[in-house]
Amino acid sequence: MTAKTLPSHLAASTTGSARSSSRRIARSVGAVLAGLLVNVIASSAVDAVLHATGIYPPVGQRMAGALFLLALAYRIVFGVAGSYVTARLAPDRPVQHAMGLGVVGVAIGTAGAVVMWGAGPAWYPLALIAVTLPCAWTGGALRVKQLRAERSSGAAR
Is residue 142 part of a domain? Predict the structure, then answer.
């Protein structure tokens, strides 16, 4: 039975519900994409600055092992930040949305590890993959903690 064959009072609520559901899905996808963009843009910007300032060698030259630790450190911070943005923009279930971003990140990280294997130390792409889900959970959990604090301060008034 389609909306056209339903009585008018039911058809209106069905199309409104479908529209609402479509909006919610779009907001969910947008939240995940926004978090991904935060992570990619911030990481790329810091990479560029570190190359330009000479901390990292010129693009195309292999970095020293310690510099990969630096890259991992700020990618962890940006991973948490991107996941927080996803959780903040999510229409509901902030941790689940952040973890959704984490799953996307694991897929991208795995593809990157396969394509770039040998471009740096083997531990680096594996470490990126390993920290992705914990970073995602942390970003989502920070948002939940913030929401709880807002509710408790609102209830105290």
Answer: yes
- Establish if 4 belongs to a structural domain: no
Domain range enclosing 101: 27-156
In sequence order, which residues have a C-beta less than 8 Å from that of residue 24 and are 6 or more positions away?
A: 91, 92
Q: Which pLDDT score, from 0 to 100, does residue 13 have?
A: 47
Report yes or no on 12 lying in a domain. no
Instruction: Give the integer Cα–Cα distance in Å for 94 and 88.
Output: 7
Alpha carbon distance 100, 105 (integer Å)? 9
Four-residue CA torsion sign, 43, 46, 48, 54? negative
Is the confidence at residue 3, as pLDDT, over 60? Answer: no
Domain count, the chain: 1
Give this prediction's pTM. Answer: 0.84
Q: Which two tokens stand for residue 26?
A: 């779009």
H helices of 7-156, in order, are: 8-52, 65-89, 94-116, 123-156
Q: Whole-angstrom Cα distance, residue 128 to residue 134? A: 11
42-53 pLDDT tens trace: 999 999 999 999
Q: How confident is the model over 52-91, as pLDDT tens digits?
A: 999 999 988 899 889 999 999 999 999 999 999 999 999 9
